[in-house]
Protein: Serine/threonine protein phosphatase
Amino acid sequence: MSEALMTIGDFAREAGLSAKALRVYDELGLLVPAEVDAWSGYRRYAPSQLERARTVAMLRLLGMPLARIRDVVDASDAAAAREVEAYWSQVEADTVSRRDIVTTLVRQWKNEESTMSTATQTLRAEVGTGHRQGRRERQQDAFLATPGLLAVADGFGDRDDLAAAALRAYARGGFAAAVAEVAPAFHEALPGQPSAGTTLTAVTLDGTLGRLTHVGDARVWLVRDGEVRCLTHDHTMVAALLDAGQLTEEEARAHDHRSLLNRALTPGVVPDEVEVELRSGDRLVLTTDGVHAHVDHLEPLLSAETGPQAVADALAAAVAAAGEPDNHTVVVADLG
Structure:
């Protein structure tokens, strides 16, 4: 008895791929449907094809080009293992070469005379916040909003208190203190398998300067003169591959591992640190991924000409309208 075929939508969800990606893979001969309706062109897949599809999804997560993936999935297990090892060896060699270039550029720019600001203006922040549990069983997000510090953290694992504890430690003693606060969660876990963790994204306000410290997938947005700019970069595997042109936007949005972090608040982690000159009239918005992962076209909400609490409330309402599958937190600060 032949196995029942799956629609492209059902198959895509099971495989962790988008329907659009499946169509591309069909055109490339990488993942051909078990059946194509001659009249409608509608594709159907066999459940037995799921293993191949999931392998394709994992190899794309590595950043492997599609042509090379075809060689891997068509090879024997031993040959496929050798091909993946060879590909990764090349990736590591390329990374070493790029690191040398980065070192040269950073040394060059750090040696140049920096322009020092003599501004003495102190900006004050009017703040609005939103902090909701969504459909999760527990609230693992946390935030801080003080006159000199705006911060959010998104916890994961079996500790509900870790994000808040990390933010309190950061407020007391900076990034090193926050890392020290979460370190026991890693030291007590199995090697390489922490039972809990958190992201951390903070903006310290110092006169007209904003000092950003960031690890994870929360975001800081700057709204200036109606234009919206994201000041942070998501520390996820999918974001890294998207930036490298190794995944399409469609693949990234639908990927089963799109929330898989490649950097969080862990012992030894190096945060992104950015300084940005701020001015009166600017708006800073911090969001955890429960906001920006589920609401498309955030820009009109972020730049709305209303007060900060109204903006925070509108963002929370938009997440609720999208089903609010995750904890979601937003901090909005209008500077003046």
Observations:
- The chain has three domains: 6-74, 83-111, 125-335.
- Residues 83-111 form one domain.
